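## Example record

The block below lists the input lines for one assembly entry, exactly as stored, with component labels intact.
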Amino acid sequence: MLGVAYTEGVFVFVTAAALILVGAIGVITVKNPVHAALSLIMTLFGVAVAFVAQSADFLAAVQIIVYAGAIVVLFLFVIMFLGVDRRDSVSVDPLVGQRAFAGAGVLITVAGLITLMARSHWVSGALSVSTKGHALATGSQNVKQLGTAIFTTYLFAFEATAALLIIAVVGAVMLARRDQVADPEEVDV
Amino acid sequence: MNVPAAWYLVLAAVLFGVGAFGFLTKRSALIMFMCVELMLNAVNLTFVTFARTLSDVGGQATVFFVMVVAAAEVTVGLGIVVAVFRRRSSTSVDELSEMKG
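Predicted structure tokens for the full assembly:
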């Protein structure tokens, strides 16, 4: 069933899968939070490889810039800001059997997902709304097609994300700042 | 020639499972946030795979919005972690067992 034509795709898939799974397992096994953040970067790069392999070039670039470049740096900043990088927080298991129950639940969920995907026929033959029935573009045309879709079909959602980001930034500043009334000398400065 | 879409879907399901397991078993709020990111990435990978399978750029547009929401979620979430750490000197979620500040 696996012909010669698949060889390149298989190589890319195996590379992406190895990056993703090694990184993901690293996130949940290493003790040091800094190492967990670095493992998370590995997973994010693997997902970016999978994006490129499936002609989502723009999203792969955004994945690297936004996730690996901003979100993980934010994680590392908070880890070092709080000074929790040396503390071992996984020493005890307070709830009896929590890991066993979590593992069983996750196994059932993943098995159910795979069974559902194996038994369903999702190719309906319906035409795309966002691309007016055109095929998915590859390469540099992907940016044009995705941009056209976002700025026409999904314009309202795009504008809403602008408001969401402003609200998130203001909320984070309000949450993380110190109360200045505690020290009256700082107020005058 | 690309591999069948089912391969990527199974990979995404396994990645989601790893993230869910970490979220259910970890104590540190920071590691739990990282596990949420793993689950979000698994769903993003599924969206991109279906965008290729169905030849519909709407899946990729959805991933774009998921990334924006994830960035906002991490910003607010880490702000909450910093605020909690100031008060309790800990990021363990087991110690946050009461509503009273």
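Chain B has one domain: 7-90. Chain B is about 75% helix and 0% strand.
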